[in-house]
Fold DDHD domain-containing protein.
Amino acid sequence: MLVFFIHGVATSNVRYADPLQRLIQEEFDQIGQSRPHFYSCFWANVLKDVGKIWNCIHQDLQELKREYPQTSPDDIFRYREFREGFLSEFGGDFLSYLNPERGVAIRKLIAQQLADFLTKNPTETELHIITHSLGSVILWDILFSDRFSTEDPAHDIRAVIHGLSQSEPRRKVHLKSITTMGSPILFLNMMLEVSPDKLKQFANCDQNQPLRWRNIIHSSDLVAYPLRSSLNLQPSDNIFFRDEYISTDANLAEKAARAIGQFEAALALGVADAHGSYWHCSQTANIITSNILGSQGIIRDVINRLYKVRGMTKKMLDFTKDSPIDRSLQPLNFTDSSGILYLVVNPLQVHHVYVYDNKNDCKFAGYVGWMDTGGLKEEVEWIKMNLCQVTE
C-alpha cells in the first residue's frame, strides 16, 4: 500500500507531510493494520521567488513616503502582511504552475518522484494520493486534462496507473483513493476546463471497486470548497465521493474574534492557519485512514461523525481502565458488528461518548460541555436510527 503526498502553496520544507504521516500511522496502529509506505513529493523549488516582487513593492512604498512624508504606507496600502503572505503566495504559485515551462518542470518532478517511489516498492499494487491546496489542482490537471502534448510528463504519470493510459509499461498500480485537503479545484477549474467526465471514465475503467475520493474542508479555509455537485456524479458512476468538513477554530485569535462577533477580524486571523491546519489535524488523519482502507466497518464512519459534533473534546484514554462502564447501560450495537457505542452521563450531567470495536478495545472517547449536549444527543440518535441494530 503506497501513499503519495503532493503539497500545495508556500511549501519550503521537504518534510512538510511528516506530522500528518505520524498521525496516520497512529490510526493504523490503533486498528491493528500494517502501516503503508509514504512518499512526500516536493516540487516547490521550481517556482520563482515571489520575494523579488515584494522588494519592488517595498521600494515603491518607500519612494512614496519620501515624496509625501505625511503619508503612512500602512494606511494607503493596507493589510500588507496578508497580501505579502498567504494571498500572494497562493496566487503566485498558481500562476507559476500555469506558466508553460514551469508547469512542465513541476509535472516532470512529480513524475520522477512517483517513479522512484514505485521502484523502491516493487511488490506494492495499491496507490493512494493525498494532496493539499494547489497540489489538488495539479493532480486534477495531470490525471484528467486534455491540454498536454504527447511529450508532457503528465503522460508518464498516467502510464503507471491502471485505466489512465493505453501504454504498457513494465508495471502499473491501481489508484484506489484520492484525498484532497484545502482544495480550490471548484474555482481554478474554470481556467483549466477539465471535464468531470474524464474522472468518471477513469473510475469506470479497470476499477473492481469504486474509486474513493474524500475532499476535506476546514470551515475557516477560504481556499477550500465542496465539489460534489460540480462533479455531477450519478448513482451509476463507479465513484465514492464525500465532502468532509472540519469545523474547529483555526487558532485562539480566530476563536476570540468570533466569540465577540468580529467576523472580519476572525477571517484575517484564521485563514492562513486554517489552510495549513490539515497537516497537524487528528481528524484529518482519521478521515484519510478511513479513505485508504475503504470499507472497514461502520465504526470508522461513527468516529468520523462524532469528531464533527460541536464542542467535542477527545479523551486520550481507555474508558475500561479509567472508570469501568456501568454494564447496566444499554450499548448501541452497530449493524455490521464492527463495534458498539455507549452514551454516558456523569454526576455533573456532562455527556460522554465511547466507541469500542468488536474486540472490546476503546477506539474513541470524548465529551461535550453543557452548551453542546443537544448536538451530541441528536448525533447519537441519528447513529442509533441509521447505523445500529434496533432492540425492543
Remarks:
- The CA atoms of residues 217 and 245 lie 5 Å apart.
